[in-house]
Amino acid sequence: MTEWDSTVDFVVVGSGGGGMVAALTAQEKGASVLLLEKQELIGGSTAMSGGVVWVPDNPVMRADGIPDSYDEAMAHFEAVVGDVGPASSFERRHAYLTAGPEMITFLQELGVGFVHCLGYSDYYSSAVGGKDEGRAVEPVPFDGRVLGEWLPKLQAGLAQSLGLAVMTNEARSLSNYNRSIGAFLISARVALRTVAARARRQVLLTNGASLIAQMLAIALARGIPVWTEAPLDDLIVEDGRVVGVRTVRAGLPTLVQARRGVLLAAGGFAHNPEMRGEYGGDQPNRAKWSMANPGDTGEAMQTAMALGAQTDLMDEAWWLPSPKTGRFGASTLDQARQRPRTIYVDAAGQRFVNESNSYMEVGKAMYARDKTSRAVPCWLIFDDRYRKRYAHLRSSPGRFPRKLLESGRLKQAWTLEDLARMCGIDGAGLADTVERFNANAEHGIDPDYGRGLSAYNKALGDPNHKVHPCLGPINEPPYFACEVLPGDIGTCGGLVTDEHARVLNEQQQPIDGLYAAGNITATVMGRHYLGPGASIANGMVFGYLAALDATGKHAAATRPTEPTENQE
Ligand SMILES: Cc1cc2nc3c(=O)[nH]c(=O)nc-3n(C[C@H](O)[C@H](O)[C@H](O)COP(=O)(O)OP(=O)(O)OC[C@H]3O[C@@H](n4cnc5c(N)ncnc54)[C@H](O)[C@@H]3O)c2cc1C
Questions:
Q1: 426 vs 348: CA distance, rounded Å
Q2: Strand partners, 343
Q3: How far apart are the first and last CA of the chain?
Q4: Which of 155, 203, 240, 452 is buried most deeply by CB count within 10 Å?
């Protein structure tokens, strides 16, 4: 028999969104919980993120009077995600859609504040069941001082690098502050909030940092032990059941018994070059371009695989096309593909995608195109009117950061032919493409790829651009080009889990005592990103379900668990 150093009911591995929700849920249901985090800092990619959480028919949007329903959301899953195997089975979608709103209510009741991201549309808003108004919520600004001595242990958030207390749904207005009164007023609100917080000496956290900080504050107040620099080293199995973990605490191996189970919420393997090389398939990625947190290295997943856990969707990631701007304005050109007067082209100088579509869709299109014409990297092309019109990171409109210009990463030429030569793109192909694109863009249409048709496309465009927020001709020299790589914000294939977040073995049977949630699993979203917050929601909802199952409680299912005739 194992000699345990300590015993709890439920061990949670990983302090991101899925892990935090699971720890709070299990504790609320009466279990003793231990949260293990291998890094010095808490929160994983969730803390670094926009903190947006995509949950259909959630209580926050309901309170704002935005109509939605389970049936619409289920139809949307069927229309967009389709059949991708067990990760997105009917049962798992059903569990996600029923437990999601309940999970948000649970967090609200504990004191976590959310607002609806109005107008941050579903990424497939034009598909059956899609919502133009959006289904995502994000955390309210939160004063990090509440965390006391734990504040320095929080993974730095998205807004911190900007020095602004900006919420995620406000961020698109910042870069359009000179383009519409609405965007200007939102930007002014952000500036005032930031200044007021400084005057009050607050450490105002927004985005994922607020999400994690709010949950961490509650976990600490409730006495949930959080061990940092305490990696999961191994899972302890007795009689076929996972009964505990081996971790390291203060440099010493420590055995912790988990009477009701272990949840792996340890993220994916975005930064593990061997795993990405092995599983990349048609979307090869050597882990060089990921923005995921540095702890995203996959060893917890490998530990479960060694126990016989089944995996799926291992070649998939939350792709994020990333203009290669280096450190000189990372977000400078990120949004360009969604604004007028820009296109993405392959080495033949041809377009291959609706550039304004979701980052995952465009990243996948780059890989798909690359099979026939080099599109990894592809090129972002834009003209001088684009440069003059939009603010580039902290520079004012019309000014690129000097270091970006000097870096040589941004190519500039007075003719498209010269630009193509500088980039190694086919000159005649580029000229033809731009001519055709311009002729249609003048009329606000894109018959080739349907850019600008959906509410989502328009939401991220230029609100004041005539004739269309996403489309405008590329016709004012000089012309510019920048390489674009298929970066990512994490991998999203991994352990196959059921509707209770139990890890399944190759025989589709649950591995007793073992749960998983978040990027360590094959996601319920399959190969699509349904809306802002689809990835964090995947982790949080299944973290919630895991804790309920481990503690013998279950989500208040309001729907049948078998597919109806229409859903088969
Ligand atoms: C800049 C950026 C912005 C993003 N914006 C959004 C957004 O707004 N909405 C959205 O849905 N998604 C967003 N994403 C993606 C999203 O953040 C991640 O997909 C999601 O947070 C992953 O959650 P997780 O709980 O699976 O993992 P994480 O949040 O990464 O947490 C996993 C934790 O487990 C720890 N860990 C790993 N191995 C071990 C081990 N062996 N032992 C102990 N601990 C371990 C890690 O150190 C990490 O802290 C963004 C990502 C980035 C990088």
A1: 5
A2: 381
A3: 47
A4: 155
Residue 424, class by beta-carbon neighbours within 10 Å (0-12 exposed, 13-18 middle, 19+ buried)?
exposed
What is the number of the ligand 1 atom nearest to the C-alpha of 43?
Answer: 49
The reply to whether ligand 1 has any atom less than 6 angstroms from the CB of 234 is no
The H or E element spanning position 316 is: none
Task: Write a three-state SS string for 162-186.
Answer: CCCCCCHHHHHHHCCCCCCHHHHHH
pLDDT at 311 over 90: yes
What pTM did the predictor assign?
Answer: 0.95
Total residues belonging to the chain: 568
Record the tokens describing residue 435, joined without a space.
């001519």
CA angle 238, 242, 244 (to 5 degrees): 95
- The mean pLDDT of 241-245, rounded to a whole number, is 98
Task: List strand residue ranges (DSSP E) for 446-560, in order.
Answer: 479-491, 494-495, 502-504, 510-516
Ligand 1 and 271: CB distance under 6 A:
no
Determine if ligand 1 sits within 6 Å of the CB of residue 101: no
- Please give the C-alpha separations between residue 530 and each of 77, 321, 565, in angstroms, as whole numbers: 8, 17, 24
Q: What's the confidence (pLDDT) of residue 555?
A: 65
pLDDT in tens, 431-488: 999 999 999 999 999 999 999 999 999 999 998 899 999 999 999 999 999 999 999 9
Residue range 331-360, pLDDT digits in tens: 568 889 999 999 999 999 999 999 999 999
The response to whether residue 139 sits with its C-beta less than 6 Å from ligand 1 reads: no
CA-proximal residue: ligand 1, atom 15 (nearest): 489
Which of 235, 535, 538 is the pocket-test mutation for ligand 1 (most atoms within 8 Å of CB)?
Answer: 535
Per-residue b/e over 313-327, b at no fewer than 16 CB within 10 Å? bbbbbbbbbbbbbee
- Residue 531 Cβ inside 6 Å of ligand 1? The answer reads no
Ligand 1 mean position, distance from CA 565 (Å): 37
Helix or strand run (H / E) with residue 107: helix 90-110
Ligand 1 center to 13 CA (angstroms): 12
pLDDT at residue 400, as a whole number: 82
Per-residue model confidence (pLDDT) at position 406: 85
15 pocket-lining for ligand 1 (C-beta < 6 Å): yes
Chain segment 13-32, per-residue pLDDT in tens: 999 999 999 999 999 999 99
pLDDT of residue 186: 94
Give 321's strand partners: 486
CB 269 within 8 A of CB 297: yes
Measured CA to CA, the distance from residue 323 to residue 313 in angstroms comes to: 26
The mean of the pLDDT values for the chain is: 94
Distance 185 CA to ligand 1 centre (A): 32
In Å, how far from its chain's centre is CA 128? 23
Q: Is 514 helix (H, G, I), strand (E, B) or coil?
A: strand
